[in-house]
Amino acid sequence: MTIDEYIIKKVEHIAPAYAEKPEDAEGEYLVVDLISVSSQNYLQSATVAIRSYADSMADASDLNAEVMHYMDSFWTDPKIARCKIDTSYQINNPSVAQYKWQCIYNITHYLD
Question: Given 3.30.2000.10, 2.60.40.180, 3.20.20.140, 3.90.25.10, which CATH number is that of 3-109?
Answer without folding.
Answer: 3.30.2000.10
